[in-house]
Amino acid sequence: MSAVDKLRLDDRVAVVTGAAGGIGSAACRHLASLGASVVAADRDESVRAVAEEIAAAGGRADWIAFDVSDSASVDAARDEVLSRHGRVDALFANAGMSYERPGAEHSDEDWRRVMRINLDGVYFTIRAFAAGMLERGRGAVVATSSIAGVKVVRPELHVGYDVSKAGVAHMCRVLGVEWARRGVRVNAVGPGYTDTVMLTEVGIKQPEVMARWMDDQPIGRLVSPAEIANAVGFLLSDAASGITAQLLMVDGGYSAA
Ligand SMILES: NC(=O)c1ccc[n+]([C@@H]2O[C@H](COP(=O)([O-])OP(=O)(O)OC[C@H]3O[C@@H](n4cnc5c(N)ncnc54)[C@H](O)[C@@H]3O)[C@@H](O)[C@H]2O)c1
Questions:
Q1: Mind telling me the catalytic residues?
Q2: Is 217 a member of any domain?
Q3: Which of 113, 120, 180, 184 is 20 to 30 Å from the Cα of 242, by its Cα?
Q4: Which ligand 1 atom is nearest residue 144's CA?
Q5: Angle at 217 between CA 171 and CA 121, to 5 degrees
Q6: 181 in a domain, yes or no?
């Protein structure tokens, strides 16, 4: 197998959550371009369009709608994916939400909501989809952390988000080590400020905030969703066979500066 072939995901079934969004949809396109049979998942049924676009371009893609914060919904989706595709080889647990609220002003529900989606949701998703990988002794998982999980980002205020993303990175370390001899690798990817709809709106409504982010981000620009997808594809592929329990930052140098 050539070095380039090791990056390919031919005939692997890859599930991507948060696939209706900026990073998730880019990951679906990228994994399909590497030969994977992609299952684009989101609670928003507009995810269907991502699968249709990939299929129209000649790739293999299916879609499914479920809520990652509801473990019964996640387990039912896993059963449905298994009945349609037989197995899952790769998982990108990427669904997440953000918000803005000062640290002393979170209601119980503000706190629970972000933990339910960003932390419980990633765990429920990994638990459900990694089960078959562990049985077969083969598979790879990537989850989405953030620069906010390793460094205090400013001027945004969202302590619950930051803690949830630190938790995702550590969850991947713990599971990566626990499953290292069982053939299942678990890593996290840490996006920096990424060129998605959410951030474009900040640029329009709060240009001074965007200017500060650009100043803080050593490469002086937003990271693209495709750049995050490149890292995810690598981590899910055999080219990363020696890498587990790691957080790979794709942040233009932000976390090092
Ligand atoms: N955009 C950035 O700059 C940035 C930076 C660091 C980390 N991240 C993380 O990257 C991931 C993807 O973010 P994005 O920028 O593509 O945002 P996005 O809002 O475009 O995509 C998030 C997707 O997750 C889905 N989702 C939310 N809650 C869900 C639930 N309970 N069940 C199923 N799906 C759900 C949404 O419907 C949406 O399609 C998130 O985890 C986010 O926290 C983003």
A1: 161
A2: no
A3: 120
A4: 41
A5: 25
A6: yes
Per-residue pLDDT tens digits for 103-154: 999 999 999 999 999 999 999 999 999 999 999 999 999 999 999 999 999 9
Share of the chain above pLDDT 70, in %: 100
Rounded Cα distance between 217 and 223, Å, is 9
Nearest CA owner, ligand 1 atom 12: 23
Ordered alpha helix ranges (H), the chain: 22-33, 47-56, 71-85, 108-114, 121-136, 159-178, 197-205, 207-216, 225-236
The verdict on the CB of residue 156 being under 6 Å from ligand 1 is no
Q: Is the CB of 73 within 6 Å of ligand 1?
A: no
Give a yes or no: residue 251 inside a domain: no
Answer for the pair 115, 136: CB distance below 8 angstroms, yes or no.
no
Q: Work out how many domains the chain is built from and give that number.
A: 1
Burial of 85 (0-12, 13-18, 19+ CB in 10 A): middle
Establish whether the linkage from the previous residue to 218 is cis, with ω within 30° of 0.
no
CB 43 near ligand 1, within 6 Å: yes
The CATH number for 115's domain is: 3.40.50.720
Look-up of token digits 């709809």: 197
Question: Which pLDDT tens digit goes with each residue over 14-66?
Answer: 999 999 999 999 999 999 999 999 999 999 999 999 999 999 999 999 999 99
Q: Could you tell me the two tokens for 25?
A: 């949809």
* Residue 128, domain extent: 5-194+224-246
At residue 248, the pLDDT reads 98
254 in a structural domain: no
